Amino acid sequence: MAVIGLRAAALVGLLTLATACGADAKTGPEPGGPASTGTPAKKVVAASTWEAAFAKAAGAKDISVIVPPSVAHGADYDPKPSDLSKVASADLVLFAEFEGFAGKIKDATGSPAKLHQVMLDNSPDVVRAEVRKIAEKIGTAPEADQWLKSYDEEISALEGKVKKAWADGKPPKVVAQVFVAYTAKLAGAEVLGTYGPQPVTPGQLAELTAKKPELVLDNKHMSTGQVMPGTATKQVSIINYPGADFDLLGVYRTNADEIIKALRA
């Protein structure tokens, strides 16, 4: 009887231990569950590094582009079949309507739900709105909010940096190409007029020259050379989109440095 009692006690102990181990196992993550695998990043295909920069700002991690960064005027690029194959496997495709190959992208995508048309304009209000729209599409709102906070801080810092370079503490008077006019605000400048995207006509040139701007903010990606040759006006080459790093903040830093260099020359 004593032996039977000992065996029963041992059996109860083993059952208790097994139950405890089973309970502990259930408190951890299931194999292959969210804690062990995570959610795969959405695959984003951008027409150019400009859209890619907006996507990166929105929190996208898996980004590829169709137009190589080395192409000066991406809107005229003719996509290869290998470029368009990226589009078919993407979760989200970003493009701008002015890009000449937009129609090919739409055809290659296969699903209108994947397409998102981006307004490519580096004016802060537009950037904030577009970044939030993309983040909503790929489920990265927290990452976008974090980037936008750093964006606002960086823009404010750059505006202050350029202001310190003003001659005699006065805002510079500028003429700007229409697609880079946002940099005039970055410089705190007084805009006397704009030109483009069509070539400047003799009449327009005479009108702009008569206003005696200190700077011409020219669009590097669409430049036709010196806008006001034979005058004392300094021309600043402004960029709109980054290279292979997709760093939109780097675009503003580069432009601010170029404006400062011209103001101090």
SSE blueprint:
Blueprint: H1 2-27, H2 34-37, E1 43-46, H3 49-57, E2 62-65, H4 81-88, E3 92-95, H5 102-109, E4 115-117, H6 124-138, H7 141-163, E5 173-177, H8 182-186, E6 190-195, H9 202-210, E7 215-219, E8 234-238, H10 248-264
Parallel strand pairs: 1-2, 1-3, 3-4, 5-6, 5-7, 7-8
Helix pairs in contact: 4-5, 6-7, 7-10
- N-to-C series of helices and strands: HHEHEHEHEHHEHEHEEH
The largest sheet, given as strand count, sense and whether it forms a barrel, is:
4 strands, parallel
The structural class is alpha/beta
Rg value:
28 Å
Outline: globular
Strand content: 5-15%
Provide the CATH top-level class of the largest domain.
Answer: Alpha Beta
Average predicted local confidence, pLDDT: 86
What is the second-level CATH architecture of the largest domain?
3-Layer(aba) Sandwich
* Spatial strand order of the main sheet: 2-1-3-4
Uncertain segments:
1-37
**CATH homologous superfamily placement of the largest domain:** Nitrogenase molybdenum iron protein domain
Number of helices: 10
| N→C terminal distance | 105 Å
Count of distinct strands: 8
Q: Number of domains in the coordinates?
A: 2
According to CATH, what is the topology of the largest domain? Rossmann fold
